Automatic annotation (TrEMBL):
It is found in: Cell membrane. The keyword Transmembrane helix applies. It comes from Desulforamulus ruminis (strain ATCC 23193 / DSM 2154 / NCIMB 8452 / DL). GO terms for biological process: lipopolysaccharide biosynthetic process. This is Uncharacterized protein. One of its GO terms (cellular component) is plasma membrane.
Length: 540
């Protein structure tokens, strides 16, 4: 029978897990409501993920493929569930509440899961509460809990995969290994960084079987042969879901987009957007093809998040564990994702924002329950505690500096009555949506949703827009009258982050017009509305 004290302890542990999770969820929702509803500021990537989900349900051609084949679809799939409420709660789309709730849920799950991981390892209750809170309330991490982006779900699955892997490393339970493998696969459906993480975890599994776990081999079989056969089984469990996910994504891109690598080299990928940032003299241009400079650049970024990692190495030294094989596993997991950024810097396919290197922090947090369960003296807990506090201070400073954390700093720029240029862009697009609703609610307007997504979300008549995900979009650009298109809505060309298939087809249309198109509205806000005239057919 279960000991009554053990029952009470389990109840207390469950309460702690729930309290931490609920607290983070409430705080994330409050912050998200402040920015999304009260301020009206959104992260571009976050609100556009909501738009991708929105097209699945409320575009002219509603279909699941409208979710897009550049970004990994799981965050938008979760957004989709909340967008079912759009007819009754329009703010789910117009204010990006769907993305806010998606992120808040995963942020709270992360905090709750880590709390449980500390408790499962027999660590004190205050550690199980304070350590996850120092992570979740860290300003850079906290922002990801409400901004609608993919980082919150990715961090959750990353932490689950590492914690359960380490549980398997100690306990040899295949259930933990299977859970780790599925969490890793789900992380791929959030972000592509799951691929290098998976590579690190697969190598970690090999090291775990061959060098860490102590097993007795059958007397009739050599130790090396036995360990290798066991490694094959472990790797098949660990790697199969991830490999299947990658294959399925390639297959879907091939079938639907006609290019299995559309997510890498398509018209709307990151590579297409950053070409303008790689001109001669730019910091990114100087890193292309220069391994030493790329490594140094990545090292500086990683160093911002590395204090907790250093605390683990100190713990290993104090407990005479530095030269054990699990240290190699820790290092492999820690460097796996940053090395992807190094490769992409060399190829000129990333801008390497600070947030792309933040994943070393959840890797470190996921390792802490495992490491703290092996310390010899209780005061050693103070070392990672102080490291997390120091890291909290470092990142609090970083978000105040646009030169260090430009993405995250924009939230501060739009706090307490202050507004940035990006904020004004959102307001301008809302004005465009209101104007189109007032005067062109029944007209078919063709626009590239890559640039016009926020206008579409703000409109009361989203189905009148002929957009990128519609089946005949490419044909409608060439022959608009054949597809009932009456107007083109186009952005001002020039910015590398503003892509428009219409501008690509007609590069002079925005500035000079055309004999088949009549300018009916210059919004004075880098957008123009052209009416397709009767002479259209002669112009194509």
């Amino acid at each position: 029978m279960t000991n009554p004290e053990e029952i009470l302890q389990n109840r207390r542990h469950r309460k702690l897990v729930w309290l931490v999770g609920i607290l983070i969820f409430i705080l994330e929702c409050a912050a998200g409501y402040y920015y999304n509803v009260y301020v009206g500021y959104y992260h571009t990537d976050g609100i556009s993920r909501v738009a991708n989900a929105f097209y699945v349900l409320y575009s002219r051609d509603p279909h699941l493929g409208a979710i897009g084949f550049v970004w990994n679809p799981l965050p938008s799939m979760v957004d989709l569930l909340f967008l079912l409420l759009y007819p009754w709660i329009p703010a789910m789309a117009t204010k990006g509440i769907a993305g806010l709730l998606m992120c808040a849920i995963f942020a709270s799950l992360t905090a709750a899961f880590v709390t449980k991981a500390f408790l499962r390892r027999g660590l004190p209750g205050w550690v199980a509460v304070v350590f996850p809170l120092l992570f979740s309330l860290n300003p850079m991490i906290f922002i990801f809990g409400f901004n609608g982006m993919s980082d919150a779900p990715f961090m959750f699955f990353l932490i689950v995969s590492i914690v359960t892997f380490l549980n398997w490393l100690d306990g040899k339970r295949l259930g933990d290994l299977a859970l780790s493998s599925f969490a890793l696969a789900l992380s791929f459906w959030c972000r592509y960084e799951a691929v290098p993480l998976g590579g690190g975890l697969i190598l970690a599994g090999l090291i775990g079987v061959m060098l860490v776990q102590r097993t007795h081999h059958p007397p009739h079989e050599s130790r090396l042969k036995y360990l290798w056969s066991k490694a094959e089984g472990v790797l098949s469990i660990l790697a199969t879901p991830l490999f299947y996910s990658i294959f399925l994504w390639l297959l879907l891109n091939a079938i639907i987009m006609g290019n299995p690598f559309n997510f890498l080299n398509g018209n709307y990928t990151n590579l297409a957007q950053i070409e303008g940032h790689l001109e001669d003299g730019s910091i990114y241009g100087s890193l292309v093809g220069n391994p030493l400079l790329a490594l140094l650049y990545a090292f500086k970024k990683v160093a911002v998040f590395s204090v907790p990692f250093m605390s683990i190495l100190i713990l290993k030294v104090l407990n005479h564990r530095l030269f054990q094989w699990d240290t190699l596993i820790l290092i492999l997991l820690f460097i796996s994702i940053p090395m992807l950024q190094v490769v992409m810097l060399l190829k000129g396919s990333t801008l390497a924002w600070l947030r792309y290197f933040i994943y070393v922090l959840p890797v470190t947090l996921a390792w802490l329950p495992y490491e703290l369960s092996k310390i010899k003296r209780q005061w050693h807990i103070a070392i990672p505690f102080l490291a997390l506090v120091l890291n909290f201070g470092i990142l609090s400073y970083a978000v105040t500096q646009p030169s260090i954390a430009p993405d995250e700093n924009t939230f501060l720029q739009n706090s307490f009555g202050r507004h940035s240029a990006v904020y004004e862009e959102w307001r301008n697009k809302e004005e465009i949506a209101r104007y189109l609703d007032k005067y062109y609610s029944q007209n078919v307007i063709l626009t590239d949703s890559f640039s016009a997504y926020y206008i579409i979300l703000q409109s009361k008549y989203p189905k009148r827009f002929f957009i990128t995900s519609d089946y005949d979009f490419a044909k409608a650009i060439s022959h608009p009258t054949d597809y009932g298109v009456e107007y083109f809505l186009i952005p001002k060309p020039g910015s590398p982050s503003i892509l428009s298939a219409i501008n690509d087809a007609y590069p002079n249309l925005y500035e000079h017009g055309a004999e088949w198109a009549e300018l009916v509205k210059d919004f004075g806000l880098d957008w123009r509305l052209y009416k397709i005239t009767n002479s259209t057919r002669g112009g194509f």
